[in-house]
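Consider the tokenized backbone below.
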């Protein structure tokens, strides 16, 4: 699940510059990005990308709402640092691969002729790009990030697994709800948003 292909055909550029370019491309030109930037077996850049997105999200969360920092050891700063290390090394990779496993099971049912697991891992990782802003305490921004990330997941599944939009939408619904709606806080943000405008 963590294969690093040194010279992938069509894979992603490595390093900080590659991460920034991937973020811009997937947000601005998602169809082209998923068509050209996802290579079989080339999971490492996608994994790094997902870790960076998750770390930026948690950093924003802690910066804007310090009360969200768990009490671990050595005060708030040390606790925040330990939490970020845990996110980068354990939580983000684990969440990505669990979501990919769930997504793969759903794809087996909905898209019989599909790409491999490594492509699915990459699609989920890059679809999370908008969630870098989810740490900002704005329900509207979090909702936008959630819906855009979900749309990117649908586009990515459609392009990479060469299926229809309907099948991709069906396949993406549960993973998107769990990852973007729950882990990145999209569902609570949506509830806060509609509550603030008096709909509930």
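A designed sequence for it:
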């Amino acid at each position: 699940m963590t294969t690093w292909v040194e010279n992938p055909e069509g894979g992603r550029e490595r390093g900080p510059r590659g991460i920034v370019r991937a973020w811009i491309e997937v947000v601005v030109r998602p169809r082209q990005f998923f068509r050209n930037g996802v290579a079989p077996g080339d999971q490492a850049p996608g994994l790094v990308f997902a870790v960076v997105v998750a770390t930026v999200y948690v950093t924003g969360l802690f910066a804007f709402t310090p009360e969200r920092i768990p009490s671990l050891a050595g005060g708030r700063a040390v606790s925040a640092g330990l939490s970020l290390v845990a996110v980068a090394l354990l939580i983000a990779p684990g969440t990505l691969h669990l979501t990919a496993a769930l997504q793969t099971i759903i794809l087996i049912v909905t898209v019989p002729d599909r790409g491999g697991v490594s492509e699915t891992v990459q699609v989920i990782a890059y679809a999370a790009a908008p969630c870098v802003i989810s740490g900002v305490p704005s329900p509207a921004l979090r909702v936008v990030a959630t819906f855009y990330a979900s749309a990117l997941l649908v586009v990515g599944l459609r392009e990479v697994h060469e299926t229809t939009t309907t099948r991709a939408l069906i396949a993406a619904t549960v993973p998107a709800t769990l990852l973007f709606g729950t882990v990145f806080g999209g569902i609570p943000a949506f509830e806060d948003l509609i509550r603030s405008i008096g709909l509930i």
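Residues 1-11 have pLDDT under 50 and may be disordered.
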